[in-house]
């Protein structure tokens, strides 16, 4: 999360707390308190990165390289053809999602057959620091993935560099939401199967052929056993480091965009709320109600012009 987004969330939470204090307890502002709470919740959601591509294009390998370690509980997800969503958690957790249920399961259960339960997706929580800034979905190559694409913010499309980028791939990617064109990476895997000259040629061809669809093309060796030994100690190869850096850039651009939208919504909520505040009646016997209104008015007026770049509302 960028500093700008964090500051806006803190400011929203501070404003909501203040509007809930007895000194600011104006009944007409119950909508405002709820709106501020919802806005902070929405802004706190990390972006969702979805990894897609044709069969055996290296999706799972790339997903594992995007987080520092391959810690997927293979006993649970082996031989399945369903999306796996990774998210940050302080300890490993696994849940199965069916059409109408979410069931937490033991990640070490070796006998669980997911087909018995009509499982549609798996959610895995991992204590993996990189997952603090994004959720990651590894997808099967078959099935309708439009719903997953719709709920995702950043697309990683994998293609095998030895036969990269077919007409079928282009057609599939063109079906995805247009917003991906600024926040997607084409990852050509199996770079280790090509000579240095071939790598240059493939990169040049992919850059030319896909400039309208992806923000970047990256060539990588994604399989665990072709990584240099240092990777085991947690150091990414230069190719993987370049891919991670590109993803970090897209995530931070996403957060900045979300921060700007969040600031706009905050100003709008404050302006609408100002209109619902009761008039201050100087002759009223209820001076306490007047003071509450004045305080709420002052706070909402500051929020109505809020921008994280200039001020902190506390
Ligand atoms: N040599 C080499 N092998 C790779 C590379 N990336 C993936 N592989 C291998 O290719 C095979 C398929 O890789 P996966 O990561 O499972 O591919 P996938 O797209 O997830 O496959 P599906 O989910 O079955 O569609 C595995 O044996 C990987 O080890 C790579 O960059 N180089
Ligand atoms: Mg896979």
Automatic annotation (TrEMBL):
Residues 49-172 form the Dynamin N-terminal domain. InterPro entries: Dynamin_N, P-loop_NTPase, TRAFAC_Dynamin-like_GTPase. Signal peptide: none annotated. Pfam families: Dynamin_N (PF00350). PANTHER family: SARCALUMENIN (PTHR43681:SF1), TRANSMEMBRANE GTPASE FZO (PTHR43681). This is Dynamin N-terminal domain-containing protein. It comes from Candidatus Filomicrobium marinum.
């Amino acid at each position: 999360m960028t500093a700008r987004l964090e500051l806006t969330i803190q400011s929203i939470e501070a404003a909501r707390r203040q509007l809930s204090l007895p000194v600011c307890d104006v009944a007409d502002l119950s909508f405002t308190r709820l709106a501020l709470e919802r806005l902070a919740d929405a802004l706190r959601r990390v972006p969702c990165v979805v990894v897609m591509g044709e069969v055996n294009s290296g999706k799972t390998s790339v997903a594992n390289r995007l987080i520092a370690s391959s810690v997927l509980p293979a006993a649970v997800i082996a031989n399945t053809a369903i999306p796996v969503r990774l998210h940050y958690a302080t300890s490993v957790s696994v849940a199965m999602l069916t059409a109408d249920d979410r069931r937490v399961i033991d990640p070490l259960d070796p006998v669980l057959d997911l087909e018995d339960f009509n499982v549609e997706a798996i959610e895995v929580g991992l204590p993996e620091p990189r997952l603090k800034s994004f959720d990651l979905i590894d997808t099967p190559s078959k099935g309708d993935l439009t719903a997953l694409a719709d709920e995702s913010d950043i697309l990683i499309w994998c293609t095998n560099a030895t036969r990269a980028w077919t007409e079928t791939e282009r057609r599939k990617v063109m079906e995805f939401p247009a917003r991906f064109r600024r926040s997607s990476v084409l990852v050509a895997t199996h770079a280790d199967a090509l000579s240095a000259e071939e790598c240059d040629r493939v990169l040049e061809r992919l850059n030319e052929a896909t400039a309208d669809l992806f923000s970047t093309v990256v060539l990588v060796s994604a399989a665990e056993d072709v990584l240099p030994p240092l990777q085991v100690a947690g150091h990414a190869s230069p190719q993987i480091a370049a891919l991670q850096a590109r993803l970090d850039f897209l995530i931070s651009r996403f957060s900045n965009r979300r921060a700007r939208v969040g600031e706009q919504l905050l100003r709008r909520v404050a302006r609408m709320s100002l209109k619902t505040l009761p008039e201050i009646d100087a002759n009223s016997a209820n001076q306490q109600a007047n003071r509450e209104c004045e305080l709420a008015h002052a706070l909402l007026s500051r929020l109505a012009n809020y921008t994280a770049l200039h001020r902190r509302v506390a």
